[in-house]
Design brief:
By secondary structure, this protein is α/β, with parallel strands linked by helices. The chain is built from nine helices and eleven strands. It has a single domain, classed as BirA Bifunctional Protein, domain 2 (2-Layer Sandwich), CATH 3.30.930.
Length: 278
Amino acid sequence: MAAPVIHVWCDDPADGPTNMAADEVLAGESLRRNALLVRLYCWETTTISLGAFQKHEDALAAAEIEGLPLVRRPSGGGAIVHGSDLTYAAAVPKTHPWGSSPQALYDALHEALVRSLAGCGVDATLWRPSQPVSVHANDESFFCFDRRASGDVIFRPAHTAEPASSAAQAGRGHKIMGSAQRRLEGAVLQHGSLLLRRNTDVGGRAAHPGIADLAVAELVGAAALPGTGQLVDHWLALLAAESRADVVRESGVFRVLRSHEVAEQAARFREPRWTARR
């Protein structure tokens, strides 16, 4: 029997509505291929993505992000400042072992990243609450990187001089990766953001340190960190090993390959009615 396959696309930057539309199309494609699909991408400009259930008025009240492009994700969770992160979308049929429960896909992707970071000297761990909660049982902070959900990737500081957020001050370290899901008909769509460095387009509570900032503060040194491509390669290899799958790097840009469907979906994400639906 042939080994299962993880199909991966590395897309070039796009705007918020296009990225969200491509991710929804990815979910449909995972059903057609009956496989785990991953799309890795960045953003044309600093953009705020709101969780599906967040209030639009809360975004308008956040002075730190005033004037920045805003898009509402189909997945839940808190607001993310994109532009200095690596974003991924993972889609899998509900019949897949990692589609059976919300925590299964969350942990599979995050555990592989923790092991990959450990290989380059970055001490990270999965955050677990003192009492069992689901991946959706977050606190109510507006920004994703101020929240904690079971399975979030946390940088564990030893002697960092990096200014601590309220979460870090509570002894929980710095969150460097979080994800959120949407269980669609037949498929699970998961969004995740790996914070590479602090976004200089925002300040105050919207600015969170990324891997490079924390590594320098911990005296690891940014030069000791692998390039993003190397980190991704190792991460995907570990993920594939866990599921005894093969990684297939697809050629082309996914959103271009499915341009007609993506354009149709993007029109909805551009509508003010969608953005302000809550």
